Amino acid sequence: MSRRPIFDPQSVPVVGHDTHLPAVDPARLTAAFIRQRFVDPPEWTPEFKGDGGTFAAREPAAAAVLVPLVQRPQGLQVLLTQRTQHLRDHAGQIAFPGGRTDAHDLDARATALREADEEIGLKSEHIDVIGQLPIYSTVTSFQVTPVVALVRPGFNLTLEAFEVAEAFEVPLEFLMTPAHHQRHVFRWEQDEQQFERQFFSMPWTGSGLEGVSREFFIWGATAAMLRNFYAFLRA
Predict the structure, then answer these.
(1) Does 165 map to a domain?
(2) Which of 6, 34, 78, 221 has its CA 20 to 30 A from that of 27?
């Protein structure tokens, strides 16, 4: 059975919040701690290895995303993008800068840095790659390596208008607090059988580049990779 796509995730019922789980200690949400965590990682298990199943029969393809932790005076901020509505894969979704690995990319790090430059104009001189999280498999058959990096302020973003509608920053502390994580269950019927798919969301209200405040609905693979980052920092 192929997976049924979710076109309107915000309409999918929320079945719970993870208020019973502790937030990551603020002392662990610093550049120094996270850098050292990758140097000497603990034993840990990612909560999500992938979405499970695919929408269509596609050959698996390597991809990478940059998880940019911007070093602001008020604390680390996660730089995210919103994809444009007309794209074939993950249209309109909140995502990390990233994409498919090209033949000339030496590794996942090279893919993530190239894509960040192409998509949002984030130059490598502002980026200090400090580690990688486990590969995440998406329903669109991408094998995604999250590449975690510290980003020095002073950059100017230039969005690639065909792929990226907006860029914005979310406090890492907000995303590493499970009370802000919503659990959804999407149910459907196929061939007279009942199926369901579960996913996380992390809705955040804030301002994009143009300073207009609104809700950004972080869900799907991006939320799952952030949840794995939570497990990594909590371990």
Answers:
(1) yes
(2) 221
Backbone angles phi, psi at 38, to 5 degrees: -75, -30
> Quick one: tokens of 2?
């192929």
> What's this model's pTM, rounded to 2 decimal places?
0.91
Q: Assess if residue 14 is contained within a domain.
A: no
pLDDT attached to residue 181: 96
How many CA within 13 A on the CB side of residue 37? Answer: 21
- On whether the CB atoms of residues 144 and 65 are closer than 8 A, the answer is yes
Query: What single DSSP character describes residue 46?
Result: -
* DSSP string for residues in 154-165: -------TTTEE
Look at residue 73 and tell me if it is in a domain. Answer: yes
Torsion angle of alpha carbons 147, 153, 154, 155, nearest 10°?
20
Token pair in block for residue 112: 């993530």
Domain range holding 98? 22-234
Q: 10-residue block means of pLDDT along the chain (235 residues)?
A: 71 89 98 98 94 66 96 98 67 87 95 97 97 92 95 95 91 98 83 78 87 88 97 97
26: left (phi over 0), alpha (psi -120 to 50) or beta: alpha
Beta bridge partners of 202: 218
101: closest CA among 141, 73, 143? 143
- Phi, psi at 61, each rounded to 5°: -130, 140
Residue 15: inside a domain, yes or no? no
Domain count, the chain: 1
